[in-house]
Amino acid sequence: MSDKMYQPTNLLNKWVQENNELVNKCKQQEGGGDTLSRDQNQTPLRSYSSEFHKLLRKIQGVPPLVNHTHLELSVVYNACVCSTAQSQFTEAELLLIQAIQRALQMTGDEPVASNRTVFWRTVLKSVGNTTFNTCVRYLLCLQWAIWLATCQLTIIQELKEELSSLFETLCGGVGDDKKNEARGKSSDIPLLVTDPRGLVELLQICTSIIQGAERLSEGQSSEALSALQTASSLPAPRALLAYVHFLSGSCLAHMSRPQMALQCYRKALVTDACCVSALYQSMLIYRQLGNTQAEIQALRLLQSTLMLPSVTVPALATTHLLSPSLLLCSQSLSSLLSVPSALSVLHSLALKCVLHGRVSEGVEHYLDLLAALHSEDQHGVHAEAPALPRLPELYLEAGAALLMARRPADCMALCNEVISTTLELLPEKVVLEDPEETSEAETRDMSVDGEDRVGMLLWTGAAYLLQGHCHTHLKDWKQAVTHYTRCINLLVRVRFKKKGFQPQITSGDMVVKQGTHLCILQRLKGLSLAGRGISFTQTDQLKEALRDLLLSLQASPECVGAGLWCGEVLWRLGRRQEAAACWEKTWSFTTQHHSAEGLPVYLQEPQSGPLLDSTELRHRIQELGPN
Amino acid sequence: MEGRCAVETWTEFGFSGTPYTPKIKFGLGTNVFLCTGSDEVFVFSTQERKLRAVLQFPGPVSDLVECHDKQLLYVSCRSGVYCISFPFLLSRVQSSPADASSSPAELKISSDFLVVGEEGALSLLLVSSVLLILSQRDTSWLLSLYKTPEQTQSSSYEMLGSFRLPQVLADLNSDTEGQTGTRRRPVLVCVHPGHPKSPSSSSTSSSEMTITDSHFCLEPVLFKLLFGIDAALARSPVILCGLPDGRLCFLPLRLPGSQLRVLRSLEQPVVFVGASVVMETGPGLARCLVAVGEQGRVVLMKTDKGEPEGGGDMAGFIEGCVPGPVVCSFVDEHHLYYSTGSDLLVLDLSEGSSWREGKERDGETSRKTAAAFQSPTSLNVCRVIALAAPALNTTGDVQLLGLTIRGQLQRIILPAGREDAGSSNLPSTQVGRSVRDLLSAIGDVCERASVLKTAIKSKNQILRHLNHVLNISFLLLANKNSEEHLPMQEKQIRCYAETRWSRLLQKDSLNLTCVLDNSSPYVLEQGWTLSITVFPLSYSSSAEGESSSTNFSFPFHNLNPGETLEVSLPLSAAGDTSFPMRVSCSLIFSLSSLLGEEETAHLPSLQSSCISLPLNTLTVDWLHTLQVNSPTMHPISRNATSQSSNITTDTVQAFLNSHRSRCAGRGEGGGEGASKAEREQCSASVRVSSELLRDTLVLKSSDLDPRGPKSTPQNLCSSLLDWLLYESPEGVKMGHQGDRFVLSSSVVHARGPTGDTVKLTAKEVNVGEESLRAIEVQIESSSIAAVCGLHHAVLRRIQYQWRRRQQEVYFGLSSWCCFLWQCNNLQPPTSTCV
Prior knowledge:
The structure holds two protein chains of two kinds.
Chain A: H1 2-32, H2 38-59, H3 66-85, H4 89-107, H5 116-127, H6 133-149, H7 153-158, H8 160-172, H9 174-185, H10 196-218, H11 221-231, H12 238-254, H13 258-271, H14 276-289, H15 292-307, H16 324-327, H17 331-337, H18 342-355, H19 359-374, H20 391-404, H21 408-422, E1 430-432, H22 435-449, H23 453-473, H24 477-491, E2 494-496, H25 517-538, H26 542-555, H27 560-572, H28 576-592, H29 614-624
Parallel strand pairs in A: 1-2
Chain B: E1 6-12, E2 23-27, E3 31-35, E4 40-45, E5 50-56, E6 63-67, E7 72-76, E8 81-85, H1 86-95, E9 105-108, E10 114-116, E11 121-127, E12 130-137, E13 140-147, E14 158-166, H2 170-180, E15 187-193, E16 215-218, H3 220-227, H4 229-233, E17 238-242, E18 247-252, E19 261-265, E20 270-276, E21 285-286, E22 288-293, E23 297-304, E24 314-321, E25 328-331, E26 335-339, E27 344-348, H5 349-354, H6 362-374, E28 377-378, E29 384-388, E30 399-404, E31 408-413, H7 418-423, H8 427-431, H9 435-481, E32 493-504, E33 507-518, E34 528-536, E35 550-555, E36 564-573, E37 581-590, H10 597-602, H11 604-608, E38 610-620, E39 627-628, H12 638-646, H13 651-669, H14 672-680, E40 682-689, H15 690-700, H16 713-726, E41 732-734, E42 747-751, E43 757-767, E44 772-781, H17 784-808, E45 817-823
Parallel strand pairs in B: 5-9, 15-16, 16-21, 32-41
Antiparallel strand pairs in B: 1-31, 2-3, 3-4, 4-5, 6-7, 7-8, 8-10, 11-12, 12-13, 13-14, 15-17, 17-18, 18-19, 20-22, 22-23, 23-24, 25-26, 26-27, 27-28, 29-30, 30-31, 32-33, 33-36, 34-35, 34-37, 37-38, 39-42, 40-44, 40-45, 42-43, 43-44
Helix pairs in contact in B: 12-13, 15-16
InterPro entries (chain B): Faap100
Protein name (chain B): Fanconi anemia core complex-associated protein 100 isoform X1
Region (Disordered) (chain B): 661-681
């Protein structure tokens, strides 16, 4: 008889011991396995999970007893933590609910509400001051985590009161805690894999972050902001606090307060230096404000931060089994946090530098970029939205930058690369459809054999143009003429076809949309003809020069160099009035608009060729004036 | 011996039904790695020609790849990818016991060697320092990239990223899975742009740029056309991935923002992706990519020269279909080798390249292409399921390494003059067929033939059956036409019967045992049914005659010539006087039995259609129904004794019966009862010429001397009665319980079907003044029905016999018989003279 009397307690002790051993093993693993990635962590986690579930089945094999409840709910907590950590949310939730219902059978009342909100309210009420009050609270924590991880924000909102009181009781009750801890030392108290106090803190901040992000994406910036500001005082890991600051900044940016937004972003960066999204967003604000220097600075910082090995994966320190990354899975948050790839940032940086007078720096960045593209460590893994331009364009941009930096030989090498790649594939003749149909035609071309034939032809043309510029720079006029001619020969292969008309060689009087193939074609034509014309002037072939320059102006009237040199040739030919008119016209164009804006950098007019001094020309006009 | 392959079997492993397709790979110097799809990887030394080591993994091995630079072997298993270093392997192989020459070293690979814990890895590829793992996740293909560490010791494999491609047409794979239980491994190869020794390519990777079976260097133009300018500019290797769902996907490895894109779909599981030089370009540069599908679809991808007017070069896809399933395949410089499982075939690709020369004649070229694809040259090597080329190929002749379905590792040396043999026609290759190849070919043919054979056999069976049926039909129809002339005995298929009294549940009943006798040369096969209709003769003309007829059917299975079928049917119960009865027999054949059940199910009209062929008609008359009493018994007491002898236990019944008869006798008039009964008896007599009888009966009992004892009048009388009672001139005879009584006397007492006693007496009488001797058969009974019935029966018998006799001997005898009716209460019977 006495044996039978003692057996339950013996069993209880055995189970407690088993649970505690498992928890200790689990914690050791956690401590030692920091270096392991999340994926590799799954395997031991899975085994622990199954162990806890096995133990739970044993415990639940006997009818519910009051003195077993504490142990049972603790094991449920442990098993659920493991399941949740493996993203098995529905299983965990089911287990949790069933365990609570089983526990409540002992108190007599059984809440059977299908509604989760009502269920938990009744549970909390009926548990009241019973012995397993705390255990149920811990399980509510887990339920909260599951809701958060599955983005069920409405339930969280509905149970706001209960959850906040839960937070207060768990984090506020210091004395209770002490007692708990003291008792935890003895071996008969079941241990928990994760400290619920730490968990509830984490949940609180994560909930604030996700709610903030959701509100922000719904456009309720001011509400989001106030909630976030209260959250910023919560105890939390640095990375999460940085998120709070970052989101506050985003709210402010939405509310058109860029300076305050910048302040918040700065705070985020101070809190966590790896918060790249704050850096990226501040860069965007600088760009918006037109502060180029600051923008370049931000880009540089962003790029160097992204190049750090650990940053690419958001390094939210996994101190718990339930990591913040598991809890922060909202779509709107991740879209807010998204940052372009390092290479894309590097490209923006290089382009900005080149466009804003920091040519040598820009060239260095371009070369870095090309080196990165060719390195063996480069793998096309990142595929975010603001992708890099096509590689030939990148080469041409880099080439143009090199030329600007007076490195014509390097530029020519890059252009050779492009030419050698594309030359064999160029079509003998190609018809460019009406602009309205371009996109359609392009997609059709792409689908045929993966490449846009017209685009390829224009790249090759641009490469020849750049080579021509290089030779011009080197004052090798003959070579320059040859390369410009190659470019022109390529360009005349393109026929333009308007709807209902025959294909024709393009002319300058057509209305051309920016950024289209046609626009680039015309620009190329203008530049190459101008380049050849200028080269002819240097070899005193004035007639040819005049013809080319006039054609150039026809193709692309806004070409300043062509205009000025055309005047010069006319002047030399003795047609001084015409020359003066030509100069005047050109100057009026340059003051009117900057047509070069929006064009790729390699289609800008060369700065390195033979130049005409405008003041000297004006003198000439003045001298001519009386006539 | 031109055109014959030299096949040399190196070793044999026993394996069967593995979860993954097997693979052979050269590596570790002159060794070969074999993964058969089971848990083991075998290391075979080609120099020593023996198995050096067996690596035992914790799960089925799906793929393996080796890293030359770092001397590593990566093996993918169900639980992940394992990495084993060659020095470790070699040290273990060498440190194994001294008698290592005999047995290979066995190495158990534990989870310590696990480097990437990715589950379900199907294919591996190593591109410089990147390990690519293709695995299948729920509904998508996952290509994961891992960076291998610089130091061998380090075990950190950093995941660089992964690409996902949603799965389509999952059934394509499951189809093959279902058939063979083997999972087809996706093909993973790497294509490099340009020359392997290209100056701009990084020097570190030069060693792996050599062409192996999963790395190719593709001619730049084709590379650009297939994979785009950007990949070419970045000099990025491109991963080609042939999936079991038929798609051929590509991924530029080093291009930012690149994605897995579909290049082409073969619409059947991709078995092989390779590259061939095809044309006379520099060494190592492939000008043609080849993809082969499981059902024989071959796609060649090469550059098409652009038309002079308009566009430049284009990527050309030539599609064709080679006959037969493709189990495994391999490409060398000019040829595509593939195994169908029953034969190894070779297709000349350089021939195919010339097909495209004339672009204008598109129709013709495509026809030629199809023709070339349809006529691969057989190499007569069977059962190859995995192929690999030896790493060193110094001699110039083509060597292949094959693994057969039985687990034999074979070296296949192709004949030097094979090219000529391939371009010329087949006969030369057929000369030197090895016995093995012939056997395998025979095996193939056998299998196909056996299917046809069974079909033909069943058709023949049906035809033969039908033939039998028709033969029997004709036979019986011929019988019917000449029924009158043919005596019954001469019919080849006929029925005869026997009546038999039986007693069941204290009720006497008359059973008819019908015997179908097949003396025809034909078998009565399944489908025949013996149908017997019984109806009383007297009602046959009346209106309600149909209602009293009974039909019995007896389907039977097989009745060979000379065999008989005996069926039994109840004729009437005691007390029923509807005799004589006519028993008409016929054979019925149901057409539905000719075809199988499933065929007839579609033809409901056939189920009821049948052929009905009348056999013959039997008559059961009163004579057949008589139960003859033992001649020694007294006619009066016979009734009781017969009953008591039948049912000896039922003495009470006997007592009651006797008591009742006594009472009845007493009631009817005491002692006069018996004489009165005697007086009320009806009688009828039939007179038959004794000369005729003597002839007939003596003729029948031929073995006796015609002047023997039978010829005496006394004998004649008894034999007449014997004949009447026991012979079966018309095919029906009376069965007898127990022994047949020897009729010694000329008086027979019997009991009719109604239970009345009947007395038959035969005696010799003189008729008329000419002293013509005749035998008179007198029938006496108290029941007039019995007398009438028996009189009719006797007359019928004699008439029948006399008619037969007329046929046998020409009628000319002065024979006659006379019938005499005599009844106490009736008019004197008329006597008829015939």
